Amino acid sequence: MRIGHGYDVHRLVTGRKLILGGVDIPHHLGLLGHSDADVVTHALMDALLGAAALGDIGQHFPDTDPAYRDISSLDLLGRVMALLAAQGWRVENVDLTILAQRPKLKDYLPQMRQNYSRAMGLPVTAISVKATTEEGLGFTGTEQGIAAHGVVLLEPLGK
Fold it and tell me: Which of 9, 56, 126, 138 supports an S-S bond with 147, CB 3.0-4.6 Å?
């Protein structure tokens, strides 16, 4: 078995959509980034790649490549899943935590779990997505950005 941890952060700005876990969340601010800036999916992909010792998303999907401009991070997650399978790994479970002062995310968490279930070919019961505030502290607490942590467990295929 292998455990991976991923972390990502993106700045909140005007004029962008707020996409988290593949869900378009109504909000007056969105996340700045080359792709759709889905910070949760980025943390998940880094956890997956890290557990398999396959680098990080910046190596596989550089922000200097126009092919990834505004791309759905769920599409990139599908590519990471294919890479893991080609390397002989399967995902056992996923645990994700979103750090955001606003908007409140509890109503969107079930859809995020469903999106990851479909994108990863896992039962929804193998995927946890949680959200928390930081009580007004730090860059997430002052609504300058949103951060996410991801932890995954990989097992070799065939086990």
Answer: 9
- Report the 3 state secondary structure along 120-155: HCCCHHHEEEEEECCCCCHHHHCCCEEEEEEEEEEE
**pLDDT grade, residue 158 (50/70/90)?**
confident
Is 15 contained in some domain?
Answer: yes
For residues 17 and 67, give the distance between their C-alpha atoms in angstroms, rounded to a whole number: 19
Q: Is 73 annotated as a binding residue?
A: no
CATH of the domain at 139: 3.30.1330.50
Q: Has 155 been labeled as part of a binding site?
A: no
Is residue 142 part of an annotated ligand binding site? no
138 lies in which domain range?
1-154
Domain count, the chain: 1
Residue 112 lies in a domain: yes
**pTM greater than 0.85 (yes/no):** yes
46 known member of a binding site = no
CB 31 within 8 A of CB 13: yes
Task: Compute the mean pLDDT over every residue in the chain, rounded to the nearest whole number.
Answer: 96
> Is 71 annotated for ligand binding?
no
* 151: number of Cβ within 10 Å: 18
Distance CA 38, CA 5 (A): 17
Q: Which of 46, 127, 116, 40 is nearest to 80 (CA)?
A: 46
The answer to whether residue 159 sits within a structural domain is no
